Structure formats: C-alpha cells, structure tokens
Amino acid sequence: MATHRDLPTGMLSNLFLDTGSPSFTEFLGNYAPDLLPGRRDALATPAGADLPHATTIVAATCAGGVVMAGDRRATSGNMISQRDVEKVWRTDDFSCMGIAGTASSGIEMARLYKVELEHYEKREGRTLSVEGKANRLATMIRGNLPMAMQGLVVVPLFAAYDPEEGKGRIFSYDVAGGPYEQRNYHMIGSGSIFARGSLKKLYREDAEPQEAVLACLQALYDAADEDSATGGPDVTRSIWPIVAVITEEGFNRLPDEEVAGLVRTMLDGRMNRPDGPIAPLR
Known about the structure:
The chain has helices at about 10-15, 25-30, 105-125, 130-145, 145-150, 190-200, 210-225, 255-270, and strands spanning about 55, 55-60, 65-70, 75, 80, 90, 95-100, 155-160, 165-175, 180, 185-190, 240-245, 250-255. By secondary structure, it is of the alpha+beta class.
C-alpha cells in the first residue's frame, strides 16, 4: 500500500481531498500507518509492567443520562507514578470514554478516537449512532492487539447518551475489541471488583444524575479503600476524581469545586460510618 513517502510531489493534495472513507483511522493508515498505535514495531521485551497504569473507572446510568467517574492515580508496579492523571475523556458532545491499563497508550487512543468521531461527522454531515461509536472504538482496540500482546494493554469503558432511546448506555471491551453493552452500571481497572460491590448496594435505576454521581464517588472511595492502585480523593493537594454527566444537554464535566463539595460531604459521612452508607432493604 502506498504511503505519503511513496507518492510523487503534488499528489498529497489529492490524498487529503479524497480520503475515500469517513474513517480518520483508515485515512491515517494510508497516509502514515506508522502513527497508528497498533502498527508500530514490536518491543524487544514486554514493557507493560514498567509503565504507568491507570485505574479505576466506574459508570452508571441514571434518569435521562449516564455518569462516569475515575480516580486520578497512576502506578508503576508498587510505586505511585502520578497523582492527577486524566482518565475520563470527552469524545464528542454526547459520549466519553474512561481508560484503564497502560496510561500513555490509553490517552493516545482517547485522543485519536475523538478525532475519529469528529472526522466522520465532518465528512458525513451527521454523527454516528451510539452502536456505531461503540463499534468504531472496538476497531481501534482490535488494532492495538499486537501492542497489547507486548504488555501495552488498554481496556476502555465507553458511555454515551442515546438521543434515539432517550437514555444513557454503557459499553465495555476486552483486549481483542469485542464491545459488550452493560446494563445499569459497569467498572474497569484493578479496583473494579470493590467498586462493583459498593455500587451494587447503592445503585438505583431511576436515580437523578446527582444521586448517581454520589453513588459513583462512594464506589471509587470503596475501591481506593481496598486497592492500593486506586487513588482516593487527595484533600491536601486538592486532587479530586473526574466526574462527567451526559444527558440530552450534552457532555458536562463537573467543575473541581463542585466535586470537592460532594467529596467533603461524603467524607463527613464516613467519619461516622467508615465503611460508607448502608442501602435500605426494600
């Protein structure tokens, strides 16, 4: 396949004017395939364990939308490599993705996926359906499989508001890219098992977005309480979880000041009940 290095002078303009596909990833594969994450040379030895890893992401549907929240810690082995990693990324006006696994690869994938959706919208004059967005992300994860086999594993979590159904939807993935729609809530990362137990108690299907945000913050706190790779709220450094709410009004990342207030309220409650609130029996 010809790349930009093989083309005579003057032909680049034609390549840019007629990409032949609404997919930016396919265009980049023709123009500069070495820039795609999955097309790079294999590593001499697996290096995944030595690189910063991102954990833990939780998402929950709510009345009229979906909430996604992530802690801020990245770890390299048993060391904290960064305390304020961005793990929840806006991908378009009505969707976002959270990343777990190799932090650098995950951030790169999130940025490329955002461009992929923008490129499609500009080429086609419309946005992809929620299923289309989920499948496009699956293709990108599948393209990263060679690097995943070298230890650079990225496992994202995708959430979107579906205007056709008027509700929020959540999709999880495996390293081979298979998209799996999840009902009500889902979580990824090393603290996911603890976050699941917490959210299972507190989740209500008809909860308002504010209540779903509080439930996700409680789940992240419980994950950090049990999993050393998951970071709790850092009050002394004013580093708070990232929280995004997506409704028919679009993507909204809550300001740090608002998240700080919610976290402080949660911590006040934990002073009297360290293990968190108890869900009422119905």
